């Protein structure tokens, strides 16, 4: 196990740098010409997780479908006071994977800062490979209270190999902890999940994205992210913000025109506790919803008509960009109630992703208006009716194409098959 600071500088418990030193798991200096750095590094921010860190590390140490020595792990232990560091030191010799541990005490620590420090250390490790021979390295991140499946790394690498620059997986609550949560919270979660799934399917119909096809999801959680090193740097790295750093990071990737895949087959089990480590994080959100059942939903869960308006305008803006006409602000800015000066500033942005993000910020018609739980059933029914109509329309067009002159009429069974992805 190696104890290092950023850029290979070891740190004392108080955080001050010492003389540069890098050692292997047994505490010895690595010999020159030793094994090359891993091509994939998992960055894990940790704060007071003595009861959960072993399960997290064992899950990472038993990854399947990747080559030996292909995976390394960075643990960033910040302000740990519960024996987490000692637990890691005791467990490390049995893990049989490269492990670097950074310990830092910092009064201004918060979730985004800790994840950024962990991912920056992972990026520095990848940089140790000779640039002329090493392929683009991959940084993955998860949480210390999460357990990744045995094929987590392999699935992420497969998705990246299919053309994506970054992969967002989805999460499932630990079953034992979820069983202790109130029934009302589960009921709300089912409603929110149903509406979100319907909106995702509608978005895929209206504004399809080639590199992120349906089926997909909308989760952007630090419990399961993977990104190419080049895309990580192009996006400016993980934002060091107190809350929502994972969502902000994906937004930064999209603003840089990175191809982000929301892969539904990558699922990580994470804690369902109500006493989380990050103020304002998932645990606080669940607790707040227990205390205030009608608190607003996630901003993405907006009224159906607003979601359709958003999807349709996003499609139009993409098409204007593809035609080289997005600079003609009169084609979109007045309709979205964006002033001429703001529209010119948006048109001057360097990427389509940055333009789309700025338009959604500037337009009052695209401002988030989250629903409250009581309104979800009505909007779910509307979304399902619309999806049924779209499916029927697609099937009808398939039948009509089959009835064109010179074509043989299709059998009833053929016409009845699903014709699309929703």
From TrEMBL:
Compositionally biased tracts (Basic and acidic residues): 21-31
Major site of localization recorded for this protein: membrane
Domain Glycosyltransferase 2-like: 42-174
GO molecular function: glycosyltransferase activity
Assigned GO CC terms: plasma membrane
Keyword Kinase attributed: no
Classification via Pfam families: Glycos_transf_2 (PF00535)
Cellular compartment(s): Cell membrane
Region (Disordered): 1-39, 402-422
UniProt entry keywords in alphabetical sequence: Cell membrane, Glycosyltransferase, Membrane, Transferase
Record's keyword annotation contains Protein biosynthesis: no
InterPro entries linked to this entry: Glyco_trans_2-like, Nucleotide-diphossugar_trans
The protein's name: Glycosyltransferase
Naturally occurring in which organism (per UniProt): Methylobacterium terricola
